[in-house]
Amino acid sequence: MRQMNAFGKKALTGLALAASVFSCGVAYAAAGGTIADIKARGQLTVGTEAAYEPYEFVQNDKIVGYGKDILDYMVKKLGVKLNQLNQPFQGLLPGVLARKFDFVATSVGITKARAAKVAFTEPVGEVRSVLVVKKDNGAIKNDSDIVGKIVGTQMGSLAQPAIEDYNKELKKEGKKGYADLKLFQSYPDVSVALLNGTIDVGVLPSNVLTLEMKQKPDAYRIVGEVGERRLLAWVTNPKDPEIRAFINDTLNEMRANGTLAKLQEKWFGQTMDLPTKDYLPAGAL
What we know:
Elements lengths: L5 H12 L17 H7 L1 E6 L2 E2 L3 E4 L2 E3 L1 H13 L2 E6 L5 H6 L5 E7 L2 H4 L3 E16 L15 E5 L4 H14 L7 E5 L2 H9 L5 E5 H10 L4 E17 L4 H16 L2 H10 L17
């Protein structure tokens, strides 16, 4: 995942998508805050910023992705219809606090500041800052080999401070660090720069790289990671503990019966080792 952070970026990209087919801005009818209320309505209303492939994104005028598949499992379990609203990221957390949605079903990075205001569910995903080189680059085999190389990532992303901190670590060890750190406007720009030889090493978020490697299976080789992984979770109103418990119980059910692993394989090409406890920062609701 991250950041203009990755989530700041998500917010911006979501502005355009917010005007798309699923953005309605009408009465949400999510008041109540219990599972009984949702069943009585016959509808689960969630807020999503569908701009973070493959977690949640728009394809053929429909919201699809890993999160949508989890939601489909949940509404089937509840016996209700899904009302998934595509909204700008900035409005999601205020919206769930105002009960415009039953919960936020978009991949939100768990941070101390956010966890003090809203109630995070168990993590549904993760994002890592991954170091990649061109597949035919035999000179760089691991993260220590990027000393003296030209490194690139997206300006303002989660990856930027991570790769800057790693450069400082290298220098503390008495090494000279990178030859240069180039910052680009977008992650696709980083990929283009890597493939045309402008940079030697690209730093990409793991979910972006997953898509890149699917589209160009012979283009990249992973040589390491920098920084800490960021856990991504859904968000509920702190006054609605029953809804958070339902989400967590369902995620655990999907984990136990193998459904969650199958969905991770489907959308990411690999499973994730996500914690079910001790994932919230101190002071979290």
